[in-house]
Amino acid sequence: MKERLHVIIVDDEPKIRRGIARMVEQSSPEWNVLNTFANGVEALNYIKSTVQRIDLLITDVKMPEMDGLKLIQELKAHQDIVPLVISGYDDFAYVRTALKQGVIDYILKPVDRQLFRAQLQEIQRKLQKKRYAEQIDYFKRCMAGMEKSAAPWLKEGGTFRLCCLSFDEPPQRMKRYTERYWNLLYYAVLNIVEEWVHQDDGGGQGGRGWVWQESHGHTWMLLQGIEEAERLADAVRASVNRYLKLTVTVSVGSEFADVTSLPDYRDEVLGQLFLRLIFGGNRVYSKEEMLMSPSSESSARLQQFGERLRVAIVHDEEAETVKLLQRCLDDLAQWREPGALEQAVQYFILQMMSVLSESDHKKARAWMLAELNDLHDHTSSFAELRKRLLNLALQASAFIRRKREQSERMPVNKAKAWIQAHLTEPLTIQSIAEQIPMNPTYFCEQFKLQTGETVHDYLTRQRMKAAAALLIRSELKMHEIAAEVGYKDVKYFSRQFRKYFGVLPSRYKELYE
């Protein structure tokens, strides 16, 4: 899991270079000496030309051509390398300059082997902690959809499982706890999870995966190369319950290979957490568990139906939705194992909840959760289960249809608002459509479809309404009113006004007065 830490050594004495290189490699298998150099110029040229990440620079101070302190200053423009200075000069001026330039430590020659090894162990711990934090930041960017390239330090050919741990409803006594106390609980949970995930790592980070927390209390585990992720998740759940006297639910996602697809698996994992509200907490949820059935053939068929049902709901294909769900339920009606039947129903629920979650329809999710809770507690027959599941699937489809219709109306509403704000300008179909932006022909079709009138008729109506208001409420002259509503020709304005209101503008004002 862990990538080795890479070192270069710079000293003008060959014997000392070789000795330091041996001590570095003997101190821990995590260290890898990439190269050694006789002066700062050679080292700087190597740093400029290599694509290899360098973690630690061990350098002498006094060297020909370029000394160690100058090298440290120059390399900042090329890589974020931690410097360690070894020198025979016990001079405070050197030490002060080195520390100002970010040197992690300063060792005097002749080098004490035990002291050097202890210092390397401490540097190794700090570097691994720094690298681990960088890796966590990378995964967070991936999960937010901000990172589209695979990191070079990831193990090739490896597979991952994303897990999320979430607190269940706390006991009544704990609802009065302060924010500070809850923060301590979150920290304790983080430590428990890290202990399990990193337990075969000798105390370092990244043994079997990565662990981080989000502000709303979710603890994430990204596991790599673990065959029994559900067993690890259950061990974490049991440990939190044992040591903190709290229950948590852990959701375990499907196996995947590309970390840039983390947003999809994040949605899957969060979708599975919704099941806790229906089927209870203090347990582990995973898609694999929900697909268990009396036969592998039935399980495979169920999964195929479920995926097709999901597509039908998203595309608002009512007939196909009913047909698929009926076929699924007919299949389930032949099962005789209560546990397998419940797991199959859970799978359908997950598909519908996942669809609503992806559509970001919060009200629909809240309604469906209430319905599902009632379904679980008060459904007494398979016939009633069939009826209610069909209704839920159709309701999910209707929610998404309304969400889509609202989204389609947005360009037209945006166009209306822009027209209102620019009535004084010589507006055209082209200029209005460019603000959406949308193809002018398609824009006209959508506008007529949604409003029942053409863009030109709407524009004229708004201008006439604005002109009528100005005639009544202002002392502007006729040509000024015409200009205010987008007409340069007063006669043309008057004809349009008479066509719309049945009287000329001057007569309209007289009648109102």
From TrEMBL:
Database matches in PROSITE patterns: HTH_ARAC_FAMILY_1, HTH_ARAC_FAMILY_2, RESPONSE_REGULATORY
Residue ranges of every copy of the Response regulatory domain listed in the record: 6-124
Chain positions with 4-aspartylphosphate modification: 60
HTH araC/xylS-type domain mapped to chain residues: 413-511
Keywords: Cytoplasm, DNA-binding, Phosphoprotein, Transcription, Transcription regulation, Two-component regulatory system
Pfam families tied to this protein: HTH_18, Response_reg
CDD domains (UniProt xref): REC_YesN-like
Gene3D superfamilies linked to this entry: 3.40.50.2300, Homeodomain-like
InterPro entries tied to this protein: CheY-like_superfamily, Homeodomain-like_sf, HptR, HTH_AraC, HTH_AraC-typ_CS, Sig_transdc_resp-reg_receiver, Tscrpt_reg_AraC-type_HTH
Subcellular localization: Cytoplasm
UniProt xrefs under SUPFAM superfamilies: CheY-like, Homeodomain-like
Protein name according to UniProt: AraC family transcriptional regulator
